[in-house]
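Narrative summary of target 7.
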Amino acid sequence: MIFQSDFLIDLTRRIFQAVGSNDDEAEVVAQRLVNANLSGHDSHGVIRIPTYIKWIKEGKTLLNQTIDIETDNGSMVVVDGKFGLGQSIGQQAMQLGIQRAREYGVAVIALKDSAHLGRIGDWAEICTEAGMVSVHFVNTSGMGNLVTPYGAIERRLSANPFAAGVPTQGDFPLILDMSACTIAEGKIRVALHAGKQVPKGCIIDSEGNPTTDPKIFYGPPAGSILPIAGHKGYALSMIIEMFAGALTGGSCTNPARADRLSNGMLSIIMDRSKLQTEDYFFNEVQRYCDYVRSAKLIDEDNQILMPGEIEHNTRTKRRIEGIELSQTTIDMIQDTCDSLGLDLILTA
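Modeled conformation, tokenized:
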């Protein structure tokens, strides 16, 4: 079924208000989840609602939390997310980081123990909106143990996403949003709900055999996600664990903490105006993007896209045409509404 974004935002807002979020938190969560769908990242959109509500009811995700500053060295700050909803906690952490970057030129925000932070590209986008350049490293300390090291068949790493953002004077900023593994677990869940297979080369079963079947990945026994680019992706994943787990104080992937999902994020936010003049920076960004786009194509019907351009184009399209949800996802959200006593019927 196809849903308009305004309908999904209102639906999501009302669900989180019903479970106990204050109006501000419910609005932030609703906007962030639906923006993920609009951007084409359905794995981090409203499909997450039933899981989030389950964790809230179990006391594993806490409502209406504000970040606590544990260590403050001016430009370097350790922040405790207190297992609050990640869409709200992440936004608070970025607001702090932007403020400190304006003051000091650069800010390092070490966020620990946030609930699921959602689409990591959001945090890079917030920084670019403020004119900042940023890099973000994320891990999951326990429950997110999903990825096998290169050459192994047992899970030892989280998906370990990372993002970076560069402001431009064009229609959209340059946004890198990816992970050190071949596929996000949420995308495997989207495929499972839709009754589809995942691409080849992404997951293995519990014996190390390649598979494209999401059911085999979830098991039992559970399979694993593979790192990107073999040993290179594995090495990158290890470094992300160090940055987002050890440096933040939130722990690297740790089976002793597998009772709840906890994200750590190390964000480096830079005020580019402290390094280069506005004219030079934006002119150079534009010059280089134009130069890259000018490369001769293998196929004349192809085009060279900039990082973040697919999401920009998808948002434009989905705001007009709507957002498609699988029947399984619709049924699960409807069940969540019913469990909260909400008189809401999911119709397009």
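The chain has a mean pLDDT of 96.
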